[in-house]
Amino acid sequence: MANCQILWNNVLNVVKSSTNEAIFKSFFSVVHPLSYDDNKFIIKVDSPLVADWIKQKYFSIIEDTLSKSAGENIQLLIQCEGIQEEIITSNTISPGKKKKIHVTNLNPNFLFNNFVIGNSNQMAHAAAYASGQNPGHAYNPLFIYGGVGLGKTHLMQAIGHAAIAKNKDLKVLYISSEKFLNQYIDAIQNNTSAKFRNYYRSNVDILLVDDIQFLSKKVGTQEEFFHTFNALHNEGKQIVMTSDKSPKELKGIESRLVNRFEWGMIVDIQSPDFETRVAIIHKKLEQYGQIFDEDVCFYLANKIRNDVRKIEGAIIKLLGYASIKNEPISLEMAKECLKDYVSSHIVTLDFIQKSVSEFFALNDTDLKSNKRPKSIAYPRQLAMYLCRNMTNSSLTEIAQSFGGKDHTTVLYACRKIEKKKTEDEITKQQLLTLEKKIIDNIQMM
Ligand code: ADP
Ligand code: MG
Q1: CA of 230 to the centre of ligand 1 (A)
Q2: Which has the least CB within 10 A, 5, 178, 383, 405?
Q3: Which of 1-5, 208-212, 346-350 is the least confident region?
Q4: Does residue 277 line the site of ligand 1, with CB under 6 A?
Q5: Distance (Å, rounded) from C-alpha 87 to C-alpha 93?
Q6: CB-ligand 1 contact for 151 (6 Å cutoff)
Q7: What Rg, from alpha-carbon coordinates, does the chain have?
Q8: Residue owning the nearest CA to atom 26 of ligand 1
Q9: Which ligand sits nearest to residue 120's alpha carbon?
């Protein structure tokens, strides 16, 4: 588990890049990480003023960075003058002021402007965009589904931001279905069901319910949600939901509710392809005010393929690593720093050889032969180089797989390609194309 101080350093790096240095120093110097346990991260703040300021300006970015760095959802708690206080960003009461301030609980970064559109999410983006422009009318409800870390929450919240930008009086409520469930249980326990019901049915113009799959088998909460849904929908209020599965595939959800989910528009998000991943990396770096060399971007995009949150986690980790080492970020540093981010698919020697043979239209046996013409020797060297860089196999193992050659042949090939890569644009491009091809094909297996 990541250490409290390391996680906090990551937060400081991210915040620093988006804040004026004087403000950063004066405010963040009085904030200290206290503990990280059971998905809760507690920070201690010396002054109520700073606590308030963090709540309003930095709460989401801190929570977000912590979650990405740790690879799990983290809840941020602020302890001020000995009182531990859970910050729920919606309708938070400022300490000392006892006055309600109406802030939305949307993550300020989850805007359409910060969302990279690719083949994998184009439809979802278009539907979400239309809903944000014309809430309650374009697609209602809008149901977005797809795997973890692919941008569902981002798109959903972007709808809220866009709608508020057009009409600042709109009341947008973002809630995870897990929280909806807990609030419902609390309401029953405290005999405040009527208040709960009333809050959702009359206090919300746009309801964003995240990860609806959590309601599976929670019959009572589903019933409550069903009525909330109907009440809001009848009044033309926009409802957006996300889930890890399509409504049809959802298990343990009542059919009348599934039927409601299917009333409007259903869109899915797929894993981004290589180009989109690179574009996302560029976008994130732009937000952090950072630049990486292209080979580092490509390395990241190749290494982490189907979870954008993990890509962000890797960027943050790398930025933190570089700042601790106080060295510029290089490909070597990225490899060293991210060596634990093991790809979920194993690239084999055989697979690389097949991909290279296919690329150069060679016979299956050519790479393993001793044939010397350049049309075969050069692809063989490229293949050896890729085997060395994309697998953990030893030189001897690689040499064996090329028809029982000597390990010095592999070493020679690797050195030669390494050099050629820096001098010759064609070789560089061929390597990038081959790496992408190998990784994309492995992913599809
Ligand atoms: P999900 O809800 O699908 O699990 P999130 O919406 O929380 O995923 O996205 C995870 C992270 O990846 C967020 O920080 C989000 O900003 C980022 N992200 C995902 N897709 C994109 C994209 N297409 N462009 C920019 N950032 C993205
Ligand atoms: Mg989400």
Answers
A1: 29
A2: 5
A3: 1-5
A4: no
A5: 9
A6: yes
A7: 26
A8: 115
A9: 1
**Rounded distance, CA 167 to CA 164, Å?**
5
Ligand 1 atom 9 nearest Cα: 151
pLDDT at 90 over 60: no
CATH number of 274-337: 1.10.8.60
What's the CATH number of domain 349-443, 1.10.1750.10, 3.40.50.300, 1.20.1090.10, 1.10.3470.10? 1.10.1750.10
| 116: its two tokens | 């990279």
Q: Which CATH class is domain 4-94?
A: alpha beta
Spatial contact of 287 and 169, defined as CB atoms under 8 Å apart:
no
With pLDDT > 90 as the criterion, what percentage of the chain qualifies?
A: 54
Q: Mean pLDDT across the chain, nearest whole number?
A: 87
CATH class of 112-269: alpha beta
Mean pLDDT of 161-169: 93
Is the minimum distance from the CB of 312 to ligand 1 under 6 angstroms?
A: yes
Check pocket membership of 218 for ligand 1, CB cut-off 6 A: no
* Contact assessment for residue 61 and residue 94, using Cβ atoms and an 8 Å cutoff: no
Q: Which alpha helices (DSSP H) does 242-394 contain, by range?
A: 255-261, 274-288, 294-303, 308-325, 331-337, 349-359, 374-390
User: Does residue 57's CB lie within 6 angstroms of at least one atom of ligand 1?
Assistant: no
Where along the chain do the CATH 1.10.1750.10 domains lie? Answer: 349-443
Calculate the alpha carbon distances from 168 to 41, 104, 140, 372, 384 in Å.
32, 11, 21, 71, 60
Q: Which residues have their alpha-adjacent CB atom under 5 A from ion ligand 2?
A: 152-153
Residues of the chain with CATH 3.30.300.180: 4-94
The ranges of the chain annotated as CATH 3.40.50.300 are: 112-269
Sequence letter at residue 369: S
What Cα–Cα distance (Å) separates residue 18 from each residue in 185, 200, 284? 39, 35, 12
Question: What is the Å distance from ligand 2's center to 52 Cα?
Answer: 26
For residue 176 the two structure tokens come to: 């995870």
Per-residue pLDDT tens for 1-29? 568 888 898 888 888 877 777 777 777 88
pTM (2 d.p.): 0.65
